Amino acid sequence: MTALKTFHDRNPDFAMQINVTRHPYSFIGDMDTSKGYQGGLRSGTWHTGLMDYTDGTEEGALAAEAGLQQVGGEAGIRFDFGVRTDWQPMNSQRLLLWAGRFGKQEEFMTALNKRHFEQRASASDDATLLEAAAEVGLDTGAAGEFLATDDLKDDVWASYGSTIRKGVRAIPYLVFSAPALGMVGGPFRPRGEREPITINGSMNPQVFLSVLERFRDATLR
């Protein structure tokens, strides 16, 4: 959002519409964890998860955290690595897709991410999900009723499996396509005449601003 605001401030006469498609993702895909095995990754906090995700040491996790804090700081974000995490979150991903039915997907995720990553209010708790839903104007009664069902559960599991099998191994994995410019591709779309712009990993606002500027320049040629 920081990059988008900066872009529009610098280019007041250039309109850009961005359509977002999200694919629920888990680092362990659709692995059956009913017997307790999670691909060598422990349940716990984001910090312990980073230990397993890096080199299994405290030092490895702290190094990863320092890098994330640096990138986050450039966007005004201060991460809290003590938040409880889940390698295969279900309700948060279901409610994400549900919010999309009302055009609130991105607003919901912004509110949820702030609670989860900055305020140590885990996205694995339904109370946190409902607070985020309320913040963006979603009907919390309807959201609660939805969470009590199995609606969209199969969709989340299918996405967990398909993203891993299509080679996505780290997130965020962002593919910027521009069909009008022939720039189409990525794991879920046939390749167009030109390669899309792909970003894999956390980046600062300047990186995303440069992506928007590249699309602007290509459009104005």
Automatic annotation (TrEMBL):
Kindly list the GO molecular function terms attached to this UniProt entry: oxidoreductase activity
Question: InterPro entries annotated for this entry?
Answer: DSBA-like_thioredoxin_dom, Thioredoxin-like_sf
Domain of life according to the entry: Eukaryota
Q: Name one Pfam family in it.
A: DSBA
- Signal peptide start and end residues: none
Q: Where is the DSBA-like thioredoxin domain?
A: 63-176
What protein name applies here? DSBA-like thioredoxin domain-containing protein
